[in-house]
Amino acid sequence: MSTDAADHEVASKPKSTAKFRGPIMFRRDRKPGGTADRNLLDQRGDSDWVHTDPWRVLRIQAEFVEGFGALAEVPRAVTVFGSARTPIDHPEYQAGMAIGGALARAGFAVITGGGPGAMEAANRGACEAGGYSIGLGIELPFEQSLNEWVDLGINFRYFFVRKTMFVKYSEAFICLPGGFGTLDELFEALTLVQTRKITRFPIILFGTKYWSGLVDWLRGSLQGSGKVAPADLDLIHVTDHVDEVVEIIMRAAAERSDIDTLGTEDKW
Question: How many CB atoms lie within 10 A of CB 101?
Fold first, then answer.
């Protein structure tokens, strides 16, 4: 077949009819289903539709709206992470209370995951010191409720929405000894700060004995093999002293305040 004949054959084929559902286009045998109005207004025989991904987007949106609305007027805050399994008579519980109280006296609201253990300790310390105690809970397969020391509590369905609230409304992260959840929040914060997705803020590991093995591994394995730069590990502060925790956070807040005023008329 000549080139002209082949071009003619292609040109003579009928064009596929495009159908649209909002901004989405369907061609050939792709079926768009009913219109959006019809899908909304038609009676349904079952409730499976509420579990579809498009419907979940609305739930996710609602969680963001609720979280932003509830936390919008919260004063400057610091998030404290730690194990839900920390017993009330453990020294780590007492450390959590001391940190929560010291932060409250320094003028910070205290945010936790709202659960028991170390989270309860930080909320309790803030509450007993007259500070603002906030708990951001999460729906879990096993029963867990917000601890009684929470003044403002929000329960989330989705981890990533909850994480956004921790990052958006905190000026620092403090990690008491904890498990997978604490490690998850720690490394996500480190990644966001390292990649400059968020403004740098202090990430503090409280308890040198507990965290020293992890820090040694980061320096020996990650930094030693060139997987991270030496400056990346400078993002982590390790301490056993509550006063040092507050000092690190206050110093970072003052530096951030100086940066925020650059470029304003009074500076020019």
Answer: 21
pLDDT tens column, 217-259: 999 999 999 999 999 999 999 999 999 999 999 999 998 866 5
- Cα-based distances in Å from 265 to 137, 254, 258, 261: 42, 20, 14, 9
**CA distances in angstroms from 39 to 33, 43, 44, 235, 250, listed in the order given:** 9, 9, 9, 50, 54
* Sole residue written with tokens 């006063």: 243
Q: Are 174 and 97 in contact (CB under 8 A)?
A: no
Measured CA to CA, the distance from residue 266 to residue 268 in angstroms comes to 5
> Do you know the residue count of the chain?
268
pTM, 2 dp = 0.79
